[in-house]
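Final report, Chapter 2: Outcomes

The project's central promise was a pipeline that accepts a single protein chain and returns its three-dimensional structure in a standardized token representation, suitable for archiving and comparison. That pipeline is now operational. To close this chapter, we reproduce one record exactly as it appears in the project archive, with the input sequence first and the structure output second.
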Amino acid sequence: NRRTGPQPHTMRSASVVLLLSLVAYTLATSGVDVSSAVYENVWSCLKTNGFHYGIIRAFQSTGHPDTTGVHTIYNAWSAMDDVDIYMFPRCCSSPASQVDDMLNYLAQYNIHSPGTKPGTYGMVWLDIEAPSLWSGDKNENVNFISGLISALQAKGQHVGVYTSASQWDPITGGWGGAGNLPLWYAHYDGNPSFSDFRAFGGWSHPNIKQYQGTTGLCSAGIDKNWYPDGEESFLEFRRKFNISSPVDALPQRAQLTFNATAHRAHEKHERSEALRRFREGQKKKL
């Protein structure tokens, strides 16, 4: 009699392929990056949805620190396993001054790297994109990026680069001088894998992929990111670049108190700045 269903060895092969696919999917770490305020309940929701690390904007392309980033760092540690920050610099004024402005602003809220949770972060990712915001002189752009890297490393920061070939090449002319740094690249193909990656800018292998752009989830706007081989491999990647994992988190009650203190300090600072600007305006009128 002719068999009409799959042969036993075919079924076994299909089962093995499915199992390997499930294992490959399981051995991966998903994360998000954000550029606006995200609160603790949202981070908890994101964790429930399978995201385990957050990358938070700490400096804006306007040339100023992101005032919401400090609070979002504290909030992220309430649920995430790892937290990094990213810096969107402004070309091409003093790179060292921009680095100082960002780190000093973070320090006002007791956020340091290296440091202890929740007032810390792992890496600083330089956001190199949007060619229209950069100089038409590629050498000037390269010198500026190189200056940012040097200034951050001089401050003991662990630096990586966020970019893609379509952004890096028009900005730097394909410069390979940052190819020794970790690469977080963007390609919005909806595919959490490195199968699409093609070497550029001195990088032959990426470290993180941003595979989906602005997406609404848990009442927040996020970008989705992916790193293969699970939590242990992600930590190995961080250790490779001498990133020590922060010490165990403070008890939840202490975290919440610390977070609230940061919010109050920020509000007090903003009120003081507003009052100072008002007084200066009054003096000018006189």
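Archive annotation: The CA atoms of residues 32 and 224 lie 5 Å apart.
This record, like all others produced under the grant, will remain available to the consortium after the project formally closes.
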